[in-house]
Amino acid sequence: MTVYFIGAGPGAADLITVRGRDLLARCQVCLYPGSMTPTDLLAYCAPDAERIDTANLSLDEITAKLIDAHRAGHDVARLCSGDPSLYSAVAEQVRRLEPEGVPSEMVPGVPAFAASAAVLGRELTVPGIGQSLVITRAQARSTAMPDTETLENFARTGTTLALHLAINHIERVTEELAGHYGEDCPAAVVALASQPGETVVRGTLADIAGQARAAGMTRAATIFVGRVLAAGGFPDSFLYSSTRDRASQPESL
C-alpha cells in the first residue's frame, strides 16, 4: 500500500487540492499535525478512517505508524501543512520508509507563502523590479542552517524574501536586513493566512517589527521583504506584449 504525503494547504479546508481531498476520502488511515490541521479538513476523511494526531509523536514514532499501516494493507494519508516540498520533514520520513519497502507519493499543496501573497494581493515577481524569490527561515531553536545560507548572503542580492519561522525574531531579522535593503524597503507580515485570526501588517524594515508586535503576531507568520511589495510604474511583461510574434513563439516569460 502507499503513504501519500498530502499538502494540506495553509489552513483553510477548501484550499486543499482536489487530488488531496479525494485521497483523504479514500485512505483508511490519516496522520495529521495536531492543531495545525483544521477540523473541517479532517471531515474529508472516510467516516471509519483511523485518525492519528502526530503533534506529540517523535519522527520514529510517526514512521512506525506509517509502516504498521502499510503492513496491515492500508493506504495512508500523511497530511503536511502547506506544501510537502517545504519544511515538512518528508525527506526524513521517506528515508526511513524506503528500506522497509513502503512506497510513497507526494501530493502538492498551497504553501503558506503563496497564501500570504494572495492575502497581500501582490505578485512576487514584478517585471523590472524583482524576478526571483528566496524562501528561507531564521536560525533559532531549530536545525542549523547551511553555512552559506545566511540572511546576509541573500540580502546582498536584493532578492525578494519570504521568511518562515522568524516572527519571534523579527527585530533581529529586520535590523540585519535593513543594512542591505535599506530601512525604507517595503515589508509585510501575514499571520494565519486563510485561517480564523488572519492578521496583516504592512510597512518598511524600519517599522514592521513594531507593527507585528503591536498586532500580537507570534506564530504561523510569513515575513516578506522586497521592493515588489510596493512596486509601481514597472514595465509590462513581454508575455502579453503587442510587439511579440505569437505565431512563431510559444508562450513564455
Verbal overview:
With 253 residues, the chain is of the alpha/beta class. The chain is 27% helix and 19% strand. It has eight helices and ten strands. The strands form two sheets. The chain has a five-stranded parallel beta sheet, sandwiched between helices. Strands 6-7-10-8-9 form a five-stranded mixed beta sheet, sandwiched between helices. Strand 6, helix 6 and strand 7 form a beta-alpha-beta unit. The longest helix is centred in the N-terminal third of the chain and has 13 residues, at 59-71. It is globular and about 60 Å long. The chain starts with a strand and ends in a 28-residue tail after the last strand. The mean pLDDT is 93.
Radius of gyration: 21 Å
Number of strands: 10
**Helix/strand order, N-terminal first:** EHEHEHEHEHEHEHEEHE
Give the structural class: alpha/beta
Overall 3D shape? globular
Q: What gap, in angstroms, lies between the N and C termini?
A: 41 Å
What is the mean pLDDT?
Answer: 93
How large a portion of the residues is in β-strands, by DSSP E?
15-25%
**Biggest sheet: strands side by side, in what order?**
3-2-4-1-5
Biggest sheet statistics? 5 strands, parallel
Number of alpha- plus pi-helical segments: 8
Poorly predicted regions are none
Report helical residue fraction.
25-40%
Keywords: Cobalamin biosynthesis, Methyltransferase, S-adenosyl-L-methionine, Transferase
Family: Belongs to the precorrin methyltransferase family.
EC number: 2.1.1.133
Protein name: Precorrin-4 C(11)-methyltransferase
